[in-house]
Amino acid sequence: MENYVHVFDHPLIQHKLGIIREEHTGPKEFRELVNEIAKLMAYEITLDLPLADVSIQTPVAKTTVKRLSGKKLGIVPIMRAGLGMVDGILSLMPVAKVGHIGLYRDPETLEAVEYYAKLPEDAGERELIVVDPMLATGGSAAAAITAMKKRGAKHIKFLCLVAVREGIDRIHTEHPDVPIYTCAIDPGLNEKSYISPGFGDAGDRLFGTK
Q: One of 21, 46, 87, 105 is an active-site residue; which one?
């Protein structure tokens, strides 16, 4: 289980996470910090990308440099809150393709219902990073991963800012092949299924709709 969940304790990540937790942090600063954290997390989760030697000519001499090789990359935000993490990751890997998964919670069953899904045509050949700021009950995340696998995705990582064990366990049960990357594991959910202490509704705080 410990190898399945990766918690980033980098000081810059933890510092920025502390600021977005504050209730008085406004939408502009919140968006900027979410993007910055996503960028730092993307740096960490791409440490194992394969490299290949390439011969080039510098202004001085010929030499051999490193270039990325192997699997192509993709980012898949779970709408709408996941959109807030995309630009930060793209700033590090601008050639990555971006898919989208749209879900809403059925008011009666409380289960996630898919209303939109669009992935790169070569999704099965890409290392796909699913992004959503919060992993609470895990229903939306698990449903998004299921939707991606139905469309051919094979190599998936899940990236969030804050998680709780309930959500982690659900993904682990339904998708044991998908590792989870997060900045913090909070104690649990409140009576409204919000992560506590968390940072409130990520979508509302990103887009100023609170």
A: 105
- Over residues 154-173, the pLDDT tens digits come to 999 999 999 999 999 999 99
Domain that holds residue 139: 5-207
| pLDDT per position as a tens digit, 81-122 | 999 999 999 998 888 999 999 988 777 776 788 899 999 989
* Strand duo 62-68 + 72-79: pairing: unpaired
Strand partners, 105: 112
Count of the separate structural domains present in the chain: 1
Q: Residues 182, 167, 39, CA angle at the centre, nearest 5°? A: 20
Q: What is the C-alpha to C-alpha distance for residues 186 and 193, in angstroms, rounded to an integer?
A: 13
**Which residues carry a binding-site annotation for 5-phospho-alpha-D-ribose 1-diphosphate?**
80, 105, 132-140, 201
Q: What is the CATH number of the domain that holds 53?
A: 3.40.50.2020
Q: Phi and psi at residue 24, in whole multiples of 5°?
A: -90, 0
**Which SS3 state, helix, strand or coil, does residue 38 take?**
helix
Quick check: is 105 catalytic? Answer: yes
- Answer whether 171's CB lies under 8 Å from 138's CB: yes
What pLDDT is stored for residue 106 in this prediction? Answer: 77
Say how far apart CA 5 and CA 42 lie, in whole Å: 15
The answer to whether 116 and 79 have CB atoms below 8 angstroms apart is yes
Mean of the per-residue pLDDT values of the chain: 91
User: What's the pTM?
Assistant: 0.89
Reduced to 3 states (helix: H, G, I; strand: E, B; else coil), residue 124 is helix
